[in-house]
Design a protein that fits this description.
Distance between the termini: 7 Å
Number of strands: 7
Mean pLDDT: 84
Helix content: 25-40%
CATH architecture: 2-Layer Sandwich
Structural class: alpha+beta
Shape: globular
CATH topology: Alpha-Beta Plaits
């Protein structure tokens, strides 16, 4: 059996968010008070980049493989990823509100897609880790303020792999 790394998992998560997050944002955004613009993400990317030019951006970043032994097949480890979200706004005070709202949209989208079996065909179960959600530092960029949030998740094999 070939070694499975994080890229197929990240791509599956990106595909589900690309196809379903805009509808979730459109559904939830009118209920948020105070009302603020929540554009759909301009980009969905795999891997880390220090040069984001449009906002918001959803980024899937590989974090860790935890092998239980030297065998790197699925049943022997958990794959950990972070779903990063980067937002910008001219008012610094709006960033935490925007991050919370987008995080809710992302988590609800992935949870609903998981319940619908979306990740089953990719052969893994997506879990939302018990780790803390990391709100990044706010920094100025191009006349606006930018801040990120990172949602830790893990993927585990759904079935037993043949040796």
């Amino acid at each position: 059996m070939p070694i499975t790394m994080i890229e197929p998992i990240a791509q599956s998560i990106l595909d589900e968010l690309t196809n379903n997050l805009p509808a979730k944002i459109a559904t939830l955004q009118p209920g948020f008070v105070p009302v603020m613009p929540m554009p759909v993400p301009t980009e969905y990317v795999y891997g880390h980049s220090d040069f984001l030019v449009g906002f918001p951006v959803v980024q899937i970043d590989p974090v860790r493989l935890n092998p239980a032994n030297d065998d790197l097949r699925w049943q022997d480890h958990r794959k950990t990823v972070e779903v990063g979200l980067f937002v910008s706004d001219p008012l610094r005070a709006n960033l935490a509100r925007l991050l919370d709202r987008y995080a809710r949209c992302i988590l609800e989208t992935l949870h609903e897609r998981r319940k619908a079996g979306a990740f089953y065909t990719a052969g893994f179960d997506l879990g939302f880790k018990d780790d803390s959600i990391d709100y990044g530092t706010t920094y100025p960029q191009g006349g606006q303020f930018v801040r990120a949030l990172f949602l830790p998740m893990h993927a585990t094999r759904r079935d037993v792999e043949a040796a």
